[in-house]
Amino acid sequence: MKVICTQCGRMNVSCEAVINPNTKEFKEFTSESFFYGFCNDCNESVILTDVDETMDRIQAEYNKYVNMNNAIPKVASCKIVWKDTKDVSDVRIALSLDCQNDDDDDIFFYCNSYEDLKSLSGHGGEDFIVTEIYNFQED
Ligand SMILES: [Zn+2]
Fold first, then answer.
1. Helices (H) and strands (E) in the chain, counts
2. Cα(41)–Cα(12) distance, rounded to whole angstroms?
3. 26 to each of 16, 18, 19, 22, 130, how far by Cα in Å?
4. Is 118 in a helix, a strand, or coil?
5. 126-130-132 Cα angle (round to 5)
6. How close is the Cα of 116 to the center of ligand 1, in Å?
7. DSSP characters for 49-112?
8. Separation in Å, CA 133 to CA 62, 76, 98
9. How far is the CA of 8 from the centre of ligand 1 (A)?
10. Is residue 10 within 8 Å of 4, Cβ to Cβ?
11. pLDDT per residue over 33-56, tens digit each?
């Protein structure tokens, strides 16, 4: 587990959890815990994302697609968060730079491979972070 603030990328964050008030024993995270939280560095409410979880899901969805279709997917349907505005969008990301010339308005971003897509779930050089994978598609 590596839960980061989508604005600054740091791990100095807080989220909601259920505890036993008497023993302070941790019970569970609430359902939105890994989405809405507070960043102690940004000092405001932010969107959180679990980088490891997203990477694992991308890998699992990719394996599922390859097994079912006996082919490599060309597009990933994802949810992203914009670092600056905290806006959330559903987008399609191409998994090969080759199709860049196709001029497909539908494609939000082009990356090299699904491994490259995985790296977009971290706080990297782009203006957005991939926070969820819906599925992989043929085109
Ligand atoms: Zn932050």
1. 2, 10
2. 7
3. 11, 6, 4, 11, 29
4. helix
5. 175
6. 24
7. EEHHHHHHHHHHHHHHHHHHHSS--SEEEEEEEETTT--EEEEEEES-GGGGGG--TT--EE-S
8. 10, 7, 22
9. 4
10. yes
11. 777 899 999 999 999 999 999 999
* Amino acid 59: pLDDT: 97
Q: Contact 109/35 with Cβ under 8 angstroms?
A: no
Between the CA of 104 and the centroid of ligand 1 the distance, in Å, is 34
Q: Kindly give the distance from the C-alpha atom of residue 93 to the centroid of ligand 1, in angstroms, as a whole number.
A: 25
pLDDT tens-place string over residues 51-88? 999 999 999 999 999 999 999 999 999 999 999 999 99
Cα–Cα–Cα angle for 59, 62, 67, nearest 5°? 125
Ligand 1 midpoint to CA 87 (Å): 15
* Ligand 1 geometric centre to CA of 9 (Å): 6
Structure token pair of residue 29: 């995270």
Token pair of 75 as six digits: 């597009």
Give the integer Cα–Cα distance in Å for 112 and 31: 33
